[in-house]
Amino acid sequence: MSDSYADEAVIRRVLLDSRTWAFVGLRDNPGRTAYDMAGVLRSRGKTIVPVHPAAETVLGEPGVPSLAGVPGRVDVVGVYRRAEHAGAVADEAITLFAAYGPRRDDEVRAVWFPLDVVDEAAARRVRDAGIDVVMDRCPAIEWARLRLPR
């Protein structure tokens, strides 16, 4: 995988300027990475939206069964599914963001593929749709590495 999906400026902007993250694959299971990352980002002021067919409430936030059911706007779609499912989630994210209309200059729109979730074809489709992509990176690690404020 190339570093083209780990642009430091993009990572910094996504982490600092985003407000709402939809976590696809998030369930009320503290043993899962998605749960940990949702907690970390929530502690840093982000609103999280759990997206899972079970639509469980996680960290006090009501879940929805799909990205299409997310109320309001999201800035980032986190793909917390196995890599073989990442492409379908990426395509749903493209559809979601397209429904928002043209992107404003100050608006964050991104799809974040965490560590070990690598699908270069999906990432290319997302980027070709004008959406920022971060792939094979952990939000918590990047937050610390960039020394961002808590």
Record the SSE blueprint:
Elements: H1 8-17, E1 20-24, H2 33-43, E2 47-51, E3 76-79, H3 83-98, E4 110-113, H4 120-128, E5 132-135, H5 139-145
Parallel strand pairs: 1-2, 1-3, 3-4, 4-5
Domain CoA-binding: 15-100
Protein name: CoA-binding protein
Could you explain how this protein is built, in words?
By secondary structure, the protein is an alpha/beta fold. 35% of the residues lie in helices and 15% in strands. The chain has helices spanning 8-17, 33-43, 83-98, 120-128, 139-145, and strands at residues 20-24, 47-51, 76-79, 110-113, 132-135. Strands 2-1-3-4-5 form a five-stranded parallel sheet, with helices on both faces. Strand 1, helix 2 (33-43) and strand 2 form a beta-alpha-beta unit. The longest helix has 16 residues, at 83-98. The protein is globular. The N and C termini lie far apart (30 Å).
For the report, how would you describe the main beta sheet?
5 strands, parallel
Compute the CA-based radius of gyration: 14 Å
Q: What is the CATH C level class, in words?
A: Alpha Beta
Distance between the termini: 30 Å
CATH architecture label name: 3-Layer(aba) Sandwich
The main sheet orders its strands as 2-1-3-4-5
Rounded mean pLDDT score: 96
Number of helices in the DSSP assignment: 5
Helix content: 25-40%
What is the beta-strand fraction? Answer: 5-15%
Oligomeric state, counting identical vs distinct chains: single chain
How many structural domains are formed by the residues? 1
Shape: globular
* CATH topology-level fold name: Rossmann fold
Structural class by SSE content: alpha/beta
